[in-house]
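Please decode residue identities from the backbone states below.
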């Protein structure tokens, strides 16, 4: 069940990246494409790495998308500090200042997945 949930989250992530418009969207799409080109399994590994903490943060802060997004970004900020991959860190730091509203938009869709997979 975990792998099916991870697949669904990666699908959601890809749709959200593609839906991002403007300069931020182009930057996010380019960064995502670059990471996937270098490590095709990176999105699945990242979701697996963050999933338990994201679900817990969601459960603690729901239904407020701003609070959920802030919690997720705080988790990701800490995790990026642990990573030793300079490209990923640079890409993340470049996108991070504009991430909050885009993450907020994804919260209701993630909530649907959590309910569908009965993590609530």
């Amino acid at each position: 069940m975990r792998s099916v949930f991870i697949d669904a989250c990666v699908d959601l992530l890809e749709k959200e990246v593609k839906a991002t418009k403007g300069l931020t969207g182009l930057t996010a799409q380019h960064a995502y494409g670059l990471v996937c080109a270098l490590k095709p399994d990176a999105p699945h590994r990242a979701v697996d790495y963050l999933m338990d903490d994201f679900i817990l943060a969601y459960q603690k802060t729901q239904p407020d998308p701003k609070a959920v997004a802030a919690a997720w970004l705080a988790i990701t900020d800490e995790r990026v500090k642990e990573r030793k991959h300079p490209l990923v860190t640079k890409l993340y730091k470049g996108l991070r200042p504009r991430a909050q509203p885009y993450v907020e938009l994804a919260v209701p869709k993630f909530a649907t997945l959590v309910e569908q997979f009965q993590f609530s």
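Observation: The helical segments are 2-19, 22-38, 42-61, 65-82, 86-95, 100-116.
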